[in-house]
């Protein structure tokens, strides 16, 4: 029981500091994974629906730009910063309210509502994880 409580004190006493290695490794791994996904998508050029393929490429390229931005601004309030998280949470809440209103007005059905809610749930999970 006391082991868990004394760990922070031990870490401070030993002078252990977070050197950011884990975050750098994660950023590099995410970048390589997204680049691999883009490379794989390029193999389907001309064999699949070009519009769908183009949309996926734009999404992955956007992820690359975001990761590059995170890399350059590691100490700024970018993704994962308090302001970013607060604003994204508010935006997701607005989306959720809107789709509920659309369903209540019978402009969308329950299936469409659930699909969009699932995407919003995933976005909130990513927000809360980060």
What do you see in this structure?
The protein has helices spanning 2-14, 21-42, 50-72, 82-104, 110-129. It is flat. The protein has two domains: 17-76; 78-130. 1% of the residues are buried. The protein is built from five helices and no strands. By secondary structure, it is mainly α. The model has no long low-confidence stretch (mean pLDDT 81).
Q: For the CA atoms, what is the radius of gyration?
A: 20 Å
Which residues form runs of ≥5 with pLDDT under 50?
none
Domain count = 2
- Counting DSSP H or I runs of 4 or more residues, the number of helices is 5
β-strand number: 0
Mean pLDDT: 81
Question: What's the helical proportion of residues?
Answer: over 70%
Strand content: under 5%
**Structural class by helix and strand composition:** mainly alpha
